Each structure stands twice: as C-alpha cells, then as structure tokens.
Amino acid sequence: MVGVYSPNREYQVSKHIYNALFSQQHRGQESAGIASFDGEELLIHKDMGLVPQVFDDNTLSKLLGYVGIGHVRYSTTGESNILNAQPFKIGTGKHGFALAYNGNLTNYDELRNRLEQRGHIFVSDSDTEVIAHILNLELRRTNSFVEAFRVVMSELEGAYSLVVLTSRGDLFAVRDPYGIRPLSFGRSDNVYVVASESIAIDVLGGSLIRDVKPGEVIHLGDSGVQTYQLVEKRNYAHCMFEYVYFARPDSMINGVYVYDVRIKIGEQLAKEHPVEADNVVPVPDTSRAAAVGYSKVSGIPTIEGLMKNRYVGRTFIMPTQREREASTRIKLNPIRSALEGKRIVLLDDSIVRGTTMRNIVSMLRKAGAKEVHVRIGCPPIKFPCKLGIDMPTRQELIASTLTVEEICSKIGADSLGYLSIDGLIKSIGLKREDLCLGCLTGVYPVPTQETLEEYF
Fold this sequence. Notes:
Layout: E1 2-5, H1 14-23, E2 31-37, E3 42-48, H2 51-54, H3 57-62, E4 67-73, E5 88-90, E6 97-105, H4 108-117, H5 127-142, H6 145-155, E7 158-166, E8 171-175, E9 184-187, E10 192-195, H7 199-203, E11 207-211, E12 216-221, E13 224-229, E14 238-239, H8 240-246, E15 252-253, E16 256-257, H9 258-272, E17 279-282, H10 288-298, E18 306-308, H11 321-331, E19 332-334, H12 336-339, E20 343-348, H13 355-366, E21 371-376, H14 398-401, H15 404-411, E22 415-418, H16 421-428, E23 435-436, H17 438-441, H18 449-455
Parallel strand pairs: 14-23, 17-20, 20-21, 21-22
Antiparallel strand pairs: 1-4, 1-10, 2-3, 2-4, 5-6, 6-7, 7-8, 8-12, 9-10, 9-11, 12-13, 15-16, 18-19
Helix pairs in contact: 4-5, 5-6, 9-10, 9-16
C-alpha cells in the first residue's frame, strides 16, 4: 500500500506509485491498483495480477496527477477476484474518495450486517468496502475527513492502515490505535510518501521521516503536512510476524530494522538450540539473515544448499493450499554437491501447516544430507491470525495439536528447535506489551466474541 503527494501541481506521481508498489510486491500478489487525481476527477486502474502485469507505460500515462494511492492485494477477508481489488472508489462530488487498506477487521460481519440493514448495497465481499461505506456515511454527516476518521476509528475493531485520496486532491494516511500493521512516512525531493514499508520510500530516493503513529491521521494537502492524534493507547500491538517473515529485511518498522531483528533471531536460536553440524542452510530468502546470526554464534559456516527460482512468488500468501504446495516444488531445488554427506542445520522463519517443511527436509535427504536439524526463527504458531496475516484455522496449524517432538517426527527431521517467545521479544527489541503475539499465545489485542468462541 502506498500514497504519494507532490506540492507541485504539474508533477506526475503515477510512476512513483508503480515503483513503490513494485518494491512491496511481496506484500500481495493477487491484484494491483492505482488511483490518482488529475485536478478534476479521480482516475483508477486495477486488475488481477502482479504490478508489471497490471501496469505498463500506456496505463500509467493515463493516471495523471500530482497525488495518488496504490495497492497490492493479499486476501484475508474476501475472495481473490477483481471485485475485491483495491483501491476502492466510493462517493461523488466533494465527498468522493478512493481508499486502499492493509489489515483485517475482527467485527467485519457485525458492521456489514448493520450497514445492510440501513440499506447499503455492497459489490464486494471485502472489509475494505465496509470501511469505505462507514467513512462515506460520516463524511456526509460531518463534512470533515478528520472528524469522519474519528468516528471510523471508534467503529472499527482490528488491524488497519489506510491511505485515502479525496476528490479534492487531498491525501490522508491513517493507522489503527494499536499500530498492528506498519505504516511509514517519508519524503524525497519532489514528493511525500506514505507506505506499508520504508523500502518504498527508499526506492523513490527519499528518506524516512518516521512511522505514522498508532491512532494518528496525517493529512497532505494545500496547507502542507497536518497531523491529528485521534486516539491514544497505553500500549501498542505491533505484529511480530512482520519482523519474522512478512516485511522485507531492508525495511525499518516501528523504529527497528527488520534485518537486524533477523540477525538477532539467528543468534538467539544458536544459544537456545545448539547442535553439532557441518553447515547452516537457510531456506531462501527470509531466513538468510537469521542463518548469518546462527553461524556467528555457533561457528558453523553457512552455505547455499537450496536454490530458489526467483520467478516464483511467495508461496505463503498464495490463496489456496494446492497453489502453495505446487509452487514449493518448483520454487526450491537442493544443491547436491553442497549437501551430500553433510550434517545440516536447516533454518527457516516459521512452520505453519508443516507440509512445506516436510517437503524441504525430504529434498535435502534425497540430495544426500546425512542429518537434517531444523531450527525455526519463530515460536510455535498455535492460533490463527485475524489481524491481517492469512493463517489457516487452528485445526490446520501443526503446532496447535502436536508437540515439538511429534512435529519433528512428522517433518522427518533429526531434531527440531523453535525460538522461544522470550527470545523473539528480545530479538525484536520492543516491549512485550507493545507486540501482538496472538498467533503464539491466543491472547489478542482486540478480542471479539467470535474470536473467543473460535479459539477457546
């Protein structure tokens, strides 16, 4: 997700938005979209596919304007189809706007039912449209985006970072009061940028100013940069999985470099789960930094034992299990000469269902590995995430029903070691009370009756 604003009305931002989205392709592979304001009206183009499949020079040349927003989608609520692609445009005249959103609402069903009872008609089944309807309703009542956002924040439960482009050419960035999903704010010579990750600001030649604060609204418009702290919480709930897996290692989130966290994860893993071995083999790409840390503490050298096909996207965020399993088979290939006769520490960021890890361990054994010791840079994931990471039901999570010893046997490893929760918190460097650990502990920052019934 990204928003770009230039104070120069002659400046064209669509290519900036394209480049920023491309740098964040890892956050969503199902659809992509851009909305811009050309001085008179909101323009929008979106379709299913990756960023370079949806946009070319011709489509970008039609998205005129000095301000715009963009989105790459990874479905958590709603099916993977064009109706759910973002940005989502709603309203007309002075109240018209386009909205892009990252997160997941825990009270989506309740909000949608209430709106439908009031006569609202929906064209999609995503929570993005619910947010848009509530915002549109409050805009017509208050005639102020800031006051409308104040009501929106009181209505929404869950995780959300928003960028909103108005039909008057204003850009708003909004982050939920717990700061669950990341949102960065920066500037280059010609534009201001808000984005899910700071890497989007880097690729535009800009500098990170700061994170958008939890509960804050940033307004970019004719009056420059204006900020409004609408809600304040005693503690935050930053998603730990952004550091473990989801974010790019060259991004900074909540004042912490993701790469540094992953190095520390590897170091901590080596202290908690030492083993005699010949080589450390990271599962590319998210585990490479952790492997460096593990090697540093253990003294075991890291090698490239698995070759990644760079034209296969992230398997974790593919919408179906069949797609994930098929893509894993063509995504990774073992390097036999590096593995044959060796005792291997196989390092990965997490185990969710266990099928991928079982396949990788099998690959290494077929390639001649003598021993395979699996080390995981995340504690056992026992509960689904309802806050923006599409994890399966509790029954599908291997750690929810099996012990570590049973998981080790299931994946075919010689030994298995997970990072401890305390070790993870220490590696991230934020206070425990400022992290969301719900998928590890079952304790969520925004519990609802639905989640309580489902998980407990």
